[in-house]
Amino acid sequence: MSPSQNMDVSLPELYAHDTWMPVFERLRKTEPVFYTSDSPNGPYWSVCNHALIKQVDADHRRFSSERGGITIVDTVIDNDENGIALAAKSFISMDEPEHKKHRLAVAPSVAPKNLAEFQPLIRERAADILDNLPIGETFNWVDHVSIDLTARMLATLFGFPYEERHKLILWSDLTTNVPQVTGDQSIDMGERREELLRAAQAFYGLWAERANQPPQFDLISMLIQNPDTAKMNEDPALFLGTILLLIVGGNDTTRNSISGGVLALNQFPEQFDRVKSDPSLIPNMVSEMIRWQTPVIHMRRTAMEDVELGGKLIKEGEKVVMWYLSGNRDDAVFDRPNDFIIDRPNAREHVAFGFGVHRCMGNRLAELQLQILWEEILKRFKHVEVVGPVERSANNFIRGIKTLPVRVHPL
Ligand code: HEM
């Protein structure tokens, strides 16, 4: 019997209790590509080491994002006549040549030169949160900082009404929280649809407003100014799908990188001391935080033909799951992979942003947000102390931290 027989690494408990580490360590050593014949998500292949994950991610011709979707749960596309609930049709779950066409049209909005324009506002809004934290009290960093900051940043990026920023988080959560993903059958799909209609209306409103204003530096204005996307509003499915992808892409991921970073610096306090005495280490520390946390646990593909991988034969039509979380702890690439080392020379080699044509489009934006946040934290606090138990999400797709009780200690 193979070492991984009957092993199901998609069990949410592994992530809720953070017990996945020895499991994947053994799999990387014994059987980095293996088959699970039975799981709540049906049969699937797992790819566990860094090199093979990159190989699959790079081979987009034989491993499709479109056929079956990008999560271990099969994507169910709800063809609503209004274009609602079609977020699954956004370019993250398209294959070439469609994918490239859509991605290239939107990508300039988060290119480094445009991001530079956002910097002052991102900094101002991060500073505002940090200046209003309750000193001397224990509070949940996730609610007070990670979620609020992500909402403020999303509002900033979209030029969305600032006081209504909580709606962006609501719409992002609604997009991802479908019963097929969460297992929660109590979700009212009718209400969900109504709310997503409101999201579409709000963004159509913003679009109309911006189209009549002088060019500004927000994602909507950038989409309007780009000839390739200037008419995107005429296709409701593409319009809402693209906007929701940008919101969802930057929500749970950035949120959990922020929370994971605080946790990492508490588990490795000498690294906290190092960055305090040398803030020039922040950019590399940010990459190491993203590697260490790996907010997106997996991405899924479907084999378009029979493929031999790591000595195994994957058959056409089978589901293939790349476990990024495992790839980022591969000691063939990362020395002492479970340690958090802020000046790790190859921290940027992590696969937390994926690899190949679908590599995260917002990666520079995410890094910029985290960099600014940590610069502002270090200007104010000598310690962000974790003072209670961490509560994690039972989720095999997003490595989520729900509760992180902290106290902040001003300089
Ligand atoms: C630390 C934060 C983030 C992480 C860890 C992350 C992770 C990922 C991953 C793993 C993928 C799929 C890569 C693949 O299949 O090879 C992806 C795609 C994507 N991400 Fe991110 N992401 C982050 C932040 C953001 C932000 C802030 C945005 C907002 C613009 C964003 C937008 C996207 C988009 C649009 C795609 C689809 C790209 C494509 O299919 O061509 N992400 N991200």
Give an account of the 3D structure:
Mean pLDDT is 90; it is low at 81-88. Helix 5 packs antiparallel against helix 6 and helix 7 packs across helix 9 (189-211). The protein has helices at residues 12-16, 20-30, 50-58, 98-106, 112-131, 141-158, 166-176, 179-182, 189-211, 219-225, 236-249, 252-267, 269-277, 282-293, 324-327, 363-380; strands spanning 33-36, 44-47, 63-64, 139-140, 298-303, 307-309, 312-314, 319-323, 381-386, 391-392, 401-403, 405-410. It is globular and about 55 Å long. The chain has 411 residues and is an alpha+beta fold. It has a 5-stranded mixed sheet with strand order 1-2-8-5-3. The chain contains 16 helices and 12 strands. The protein is 46% helix and 11% strand. The longest helix has 23 residues, at 189-211. Protoporphyrin IX containing FE binds at residues 57, 91-92, 103, 110, 245-246, 249-250, 253-254, 257, 290, 295-296, 299, 352-356, 358-362, 365-366.
Mean pLDDT: 90
Order of H and E elements: HHEEHEHHEHHHHHHHHHEEEEHHEEEE
In this structure, how is the largest beta sheet organized? 5 strands, mixed
Radius of gyration: 21 Å
Structural class by helix and strand composition: alpha+beta
Question: Strand tally, please?
Answer: 12
Overall shape: globular
